[in-house]
Description:
By secondary structure, the first copy, chain A, is α/β, with parallel strands linked by helices. Chain A contains 13 helices and 14 strands. The model of chain A has no long low-confidence stretch (mean pLDDT 93).
Amino acid sequence: MPKQPLDVVGIGNAIVDVLAQADEAFLKAQDLAKGTMTLIDGARAETLYAAMGPAVEVSGGSAANTMAGLASLGGRGAFIGKVRNDQLGGIFRHDIRAAGVTFETPAATEGPPTARCLIFVTPDAQRTMGTYLGASVDLMAEDLDADMIGRAKVTYLEGYLWDAPEAKAAFLEAARMAHGAGRKVALSLSDPFCVDRHRDSFIELIGGHVDLLFANDVEICSLFQVDDFDRALQEVRGHCEIAALTRSAKGSVVLRDREVHLVDAEPVAKVVDTTGAGDLYAAGFLHGYTRGRGLYDCGRLGAIAAAEAISHFGARPETPLAELAAACMGGGH
Amino acid sequence: MPKQPLDVVGIGNAIVDVLAQADEAFLKAQDLAKGTMTLIDGARAETLYAAMGPAVEVSGGSAANTMAGLASLGGRGAFIGKVRNDQLGGIFRHDIRAAGVTFETPAATEGPPTARCLIFVTPDAQRTMGTYLGASVDLMAEDLDADMIGRAKVTYLEGYLWDAPEAKAAFLEAARMAHGAGRKVALSLSDPFCVDRHRDSFIELIGGHVDLLFANDVEICSLFQVDDFDRALQEVRGHCEIAALTRSAKGSVVLRDREVHLVDAEPVAKVVDTTGAGDLYAAGFLHGYTRGRGLYDCGRLGAIAAAEAISHFGARPETPLAELAAACMGGGH
């Protein structure tokens, strides 16, 4: 049976999210910087979990969320990432496959357990994250399926992978494979602290290996060490073919050479939890892009998918996004 | 340090809920009777899970939900139930303790994994459950803490425990311990099919060991094999001191001898998921009862707690129930 073509293959940390409500005093007491992601080791993960309120577990991971969103929009996606052969790993595998995403990376049979991200949602709907990377750092270049990457129009990489040396090597290898097959490479900067940890190598990477860059305003300003979003817009030109830069409630800006599109955010009745907003924006954008839509429409699809994600607890879509997108965009994709 | 008095100790299956949305066609294809709980073995649990959509994991278990609700109302509760020393067992332990409930039953170090309940929520907000009892059937009489049971005003037992022979023996032993200490025993019938499996021994149990009976209309009619709720009301008199009988949107009826209270259901803007409605009704009722409130107020507190549970996905409270109860009841408890 000939293998199906793919729209996007996402490569990232395979993580189960553990979500609970928390107040600002809790964040302060636990020394967590609100709105950001902090890497934590196994011991800190246990201490923090013990202090956490009653939680719900939902499969997560930035690129994995993006792939679940792409599938919900009707796109053909695959995911590459590493879980352990434990119960949380089984949950991750079930959920991403049940979302309609191809996931075949074998589970690690030894080493640390499946990664988890402790997510504290404050009453203002902001999320603050502590991530224990666990088994996900053991993603190796040999876990990459060159055939799968060659079949995908876009290979989408999450910046968070840069935190693990082996995974970083796999990440670069995946970019080479994609370009070798004449395909596009997309990168999400993931988090301002992640940018701060890896600024120089990110700039080098973006210049040499990235066709589509996703970032929010804080991340892109951090990347170029500028205070002002408009200056960051100037800096990003020439570094990559397309940049899609999100600004929360202010919408997004999509750039290609001299082409600039300002896209409004999609209105949301009540913002419940912003976890996954960036991931789902990328899902909508990439769905439009791989289906040949213009950049403005790509940004619109990103805004629609992000709006669904922030209107409920958790990062994966609860409503079939294809229906929402059809309602907003007039169908045809 | 002298041990604190307790309001209620709940004894039941220690279960992690796995919730997903499903449509009626799915229930039919999987041969699941809508609105009920079916016991499934490990192999069927795997098949059913493989067919299930993307899910969220939340700690559950009927009596455990009731204890979490009681704690949320400000009551002092403890739970006795069996998990395995696996990741799901760790999640169960974390969540019930984080809810403010004492839970000290040691985890099994061998045997089947922690119990899970696959819950399919249909668009009409009804839940249909397949439960793999796993480690929870290994609850033994030696897991009972006689001192804890003696300190609690009420020992609350879930009917579901009757499905596991060892747990059933523990259940009877707990009732004897409670009565031996001059305390009350409460029972929830749990499910009409559960009643059907154990009718005769339930009637015997209720006559000899139960002071407070919780049941819904379908369960109480099944228990006495009558078609009509009013006939069931006549039958239940004399079998136990107090009966609290719920009727979904029609509210509840609370009986003690010739005393009868009709309690309206608390209005809910949108019913999202009825999972946990009965469990949380019992939580509210028992909180009122152990704080010396009259039976009508107990029913009202049950209605308020149930209304919160059905207004979101999952069975454990998301909003502190003490605040809701104070707002509805005028404080003072």
